[in-house]
Backbone:
């Protein structure tokens, strides 16, 4: 049973480009959480999604960031017109319901040059 | 707004010594987690603490929770080099088990 899979593991983008980060939850999990970790800091919650629904996006920046979790396929975190401050590790976690602990993926390390 | 503070932020200790990492949080919580993170890696769940007075132990690590003081501790006994990592506590106070507020982390370095 594969764990939470994120890809790519490393992503380099030039300022102004778009970044797409993918997260495939564990088998049987329909709840996905995205977190951002800036260098030398703890993780900060961004968004919580269930299949086809955004449940809580209170941690998402108001502009340039969006997330989806379609009926089929992985969850996608999309960052438009990236800036240097977007450089961070982005972690995805999944669970089978909102009351159980989620498992974290390996993360995508985004570098904006 | 929930705030989670850890101290110390950095800890260098010799093998064989004991030490405690502290995690304070500002509002009532449903559960508290401890995670380990190695450089460039994901988070490994160590403990989940659900109730006041909860104590859990795994190997050289022991975690406890005092909900009245809003304090959790991670105690390291007879440290070994393999324990070198960054340790995070995280708190859930929303009823959504994985919408967590993380502490800033404690970077532990165990020297020979």
Residues:
């Amino acid at each position: 049973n594969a764990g939470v899979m994120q890809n790519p593991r490393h992503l380099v983008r030039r300022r102004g480009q778009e970044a797409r980060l993918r997260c495939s939850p564990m088998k049987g999990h329909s709840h996905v959480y995205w977190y951002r970790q800036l260098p030398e800091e703890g993780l900060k919650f961004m968004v919580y999604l269930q299949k086809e629904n955004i449940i809580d996006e209170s941690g998402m920046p108001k502009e340039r960031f969006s997330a989806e979790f379609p009926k089929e396929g992985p969850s996608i975190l999309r960052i438009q017109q990236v800036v240097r401050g977007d450089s961070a590790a982005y972690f995805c976690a999944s669970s089978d319901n909102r009351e159980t602990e989620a498992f974290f993926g390996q993360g995508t390390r985004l570098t904006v040059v | 707004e929930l705030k989670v503070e850890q101290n110390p932020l950095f800890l260098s200790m010799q093998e064989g010594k004991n030490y405690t990492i502290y995690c304070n949080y500002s509002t009532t919580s449903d559960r508290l987690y401890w995670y380990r993170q190695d450089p460039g890696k994901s988070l490994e769940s160590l403990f989940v603490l659900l109730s006041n007075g909860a104590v859990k132990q795994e190997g050289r690590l022991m975690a406890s929770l005092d909900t009245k003081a809003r304090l959790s501790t991670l105690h390291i006994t007879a440290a070994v080099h393999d324990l070198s990592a960054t340790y995070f506590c995280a708190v859930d106070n929303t009823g959504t088990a994985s919408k967590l507020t993380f502490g800033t982390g404690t970077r532990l370095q165990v020297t020979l």
